[in-house]
């Protein structure tokens, strides 16, 4: 078998990274739908199970198609290793289970995905791991929250759904000063727009379900980082606990990575145009998008990112009733809480993605009843504006 993807450029690695051609000399990456793999001898089987010889054993933790995706994503993020999982939340959970123990403390930014908050407040405390939440740009708050037992700092940047941009390099310095790790959920930007490891982060989390796929087809996740923490410890958790990515999903995600930078540029262009248009609409009281000069972290986003991404949020008057009327008034934009699709989507965070957290937590995160989030797709932006204009007029 021959390995492809020796080029150094981002797009070359996105198209060819991790591919290993078989004797069939296929052009597209093969899909290995096999639960297990055979060995040449009993001695080889023993060596592979003992970790003394590399090779496939069982698709829960060794599958060539999944490995192609892992190596391709690790190459794009600049990491040494990647572990693919069954979902983005499975990636976060596997990381926590592998690297934390009872008595450890986590600092997490507010404004993360609602289920991430639930994991940290409802599940991990059962195992003696507790979390403190601070605003993503409240740097004094991050410092004050540090404890001797703090092991991990976790954030999404830009945040969900207010698109606050946190200073990754500053937070990495704080974490390392206290012998803690900085983990960045890079779902909104992807490595096409932001590479946290280059800024000092230790680990990267992905919901591959979003932009890495790009067409809303499959569910999956990934952790990217170094050979020790990811390649050994988190891989060991995957091998034992089994939150594995299916080979078919890995194949879809690998194909999604091939067009990642092209799509992220187009998403960013459409989102910028839509944000500027919404900012002038009389029904809209506020627009959150890092590409707008009035955004509080606009200059930081310009330095830290290669683009502003496809996610924006905006507020309308009338509270929940007013927001729901806008959602129901759309005719083309899809009403779904998923994001990162070529099809634009709209959701009301307070009653969907953040509906399971407390009102107090929503208030602290700025998730108001009039807030709406749009994942801007690749349709003609004029059609998106027309759809929203009609919905805003009806609401």
Give a verbal description of the structure.
There is one protein chain. This protein folds into two domains: 251 residues, Type I PLP-dependent aspartate aminotransferase-like (Major domain) (Aspartate Aminotransferase, domain 2); 135 residues, Aspartate Aminotransferase, domain 1 (Alpha-Beta Complex), CATH 3.90.1150.10. It has a seven-stranded mixed sheet with strand order 3-9-8-7-6-4-5, with helices on both faces. A five-stranded mixed sheet has the order 10-11-14-13-12. The mean pLDDT is 95. The termini are far apart. With 395 residues, the chain is α/β, with parallel strands linked by helices. Strand 6, helix 7 and strand 7 form a beta-alpha-beta unit.
Short description:
This protein has helices spanning 10-16, 42-49, 64-77, 88-99, 114-123, 139-145, 168-177, 190-193, 229-241, 247-257, 260-279, 298-304, 319-329, 359-365, 381-394; strands at residues 2-3, 20-21, 81-85, 105-109, 130-134, 150-156, 181-185, 203-207, 221-225, 284-288, 311-316, 334-335, 345-347, 371-375. By secondary structure, it is α/β, with parallel strands linked by helices. Helix 3 (64-77) packs parallel to helix 10 (247-257) and helix 13 (319-329) crosses helix 15.
Summarize the biggest pleated sheet: 7 strands, mixed
Widest sheet: strand order?
3-9-8-7-6-4-5
Strand content: 15-25%
Query: What is the arithmetic mean of pLDDT?
Result: 95
CATH architecture of the largest domain: 3-Layer(aba) Sandwich
Shape: globular
Q: What is the CATH topology descriptor of the largest domain? A: Aspartate Aminotransferase, domain 2
